[in-house]
Amino acid sequence: MALFGLLGFSAGLPFYMFSTVLTLRLQAHGVALVVIGFFAWVQLLPTFKFVWAPLLDRFDVPGFGRVWGKRRGWIMLAQLGIFTSMVAMAATSADASLGVTALFAVLLAFWTTTLEVAADAWRIELAPTQTEQGPIAAANLWGYRTAMVAAGSGALLVADGPGWSAAYLVIAAAAFAPFPMLAAMRPEATATRRTAGLATGIIASIGILVAAAAITAAVGWVVLAVAAGAGLSAQTNVTPYVLASCMLPFILMALALPRIRRAGPTDPLRTSTAMGPYVDFFWRYGFGALVVLAFVSVYRMGDVLALNLSKPMIKGLGYSLSAIGRADSLVALVASILGVGIGGLMVARTRMGYALGIAACFAAFGNFGFVWLAHQTVSEPMLYLATAADQFGNGMAGAVFVVYLSMLVNLRYPGAQYAFLSGFAFLLPRLLAGAGGSMVERIGYDGFFLLSGVVSLAAIPFLPVIARTRPRQSDMPA
């Protein structure tokens, strides 16, 4: 539990830096609300982690993997990527070029997600049952949410003083702290020459980091050129296009299911390194997979919609960065820890359907709290109440949801399948979050946060069907 608390802390620190903190930084530099909404699409990257997750199951990081094993090797590489990306964001904190800001934000999101993929695979391998997962998932989320609170509140308090560059440098240093701790841990039983492995790993990591940055810059240039050619701008209402895009994955999966269900154990679809882990999920659940994926797409949608625009709304009400930072410190930390702890205990001792339903209600209540806050006079105690309700609901729903997703996974492919499920769960919410600025311009902040709360409750009608959805037994040899 201590180990996964540390890993959760490592992944949670950078998350706020390319999401909530970045939105406030952009707002401070006069970036339009619609464009700030577009930056929410940086958070789409974790939804596509299934693309590179099989690589983490199959390959080792040179040097690191030989000495510390596959999972720790990838975690150490990811921490180097997180550190260098945040240093780069500190160096470009004036946001003179939004394209450059987006580049380093995407790289930060990529390496943060890579760390999560490796840690999640390790967690599922070590604790394969629901009873075992409850405490470990809670410990992981305690670390994760503690780090998010530390990054959010700490970065804002520093930004209100020395500035945004200092804020990113402070969090970069904190995010890198677990690296020497991992390097000092006991190596694999067959490992020798720890120093040589560390040196080889660092040299290989530099090459990988440079290659990742070059590829990201090239892809980003193409995407921006295509968007400009299509006439997309801050004045474009992107919501209809986003909603249409969200339907495509479900249509494609429904068309492919009959072929997948007929596939035998030696079929190339199921034995492929790249596709096999994902085909296996649909083979086991059949058309029930579509219901499961629809449910997971809705379950955390309210929280994701609220994440990016809650802080700009609070800032617009008249609260200072320091006030927001204080609310996001001890208040958010205590509320989040309580929510995660109760969620982890609940899922270990009650039926999954009940736990999911109760947590969804608390998550919705937290979103409605922002509507209530908007109609109060500016007062830090009121801000603390709204923040506590939001963090408690998010923590509880997050703990239950992590265990639910973990129980869907085939232990033959823990890293790839969990990456797919957890990534797909946030695909639709993060697509819509990118259109959040456009939504606010049309329905206002009240309508937006009422909508986010109602969407959290929309997951509840799925629960009777979800409870009856069971996978068929695999016909592949153990």
UniProtKB/TrEMBL annotation:
UniProt entry keywords in alphabetical sequence: Membrane, Transmembrane, Transmembrane helix, Transport
Membrane topology: Multi-pass membrane protein
GO cellular component: membrane
Intracellular or extracellular location(s): Membrane
InterPro entries according to UniProt: AmpG_permease/AT-1, MFS_trans_sf
Membrane spanning residue stretches: 29-52, 73-92, 98-122, 165-184, 196-229, 241-260, 281-302, 329-347, 354-372, 392-411, 418-436, 448-467
Protein's UniProt name: Permease
Organism annotation: Sphingomonas oligophenolica
High-level lineage: Bacteria, Pseudomonadati, Pseudomonadota, Alphaproteobacteria, Sphingomonadales
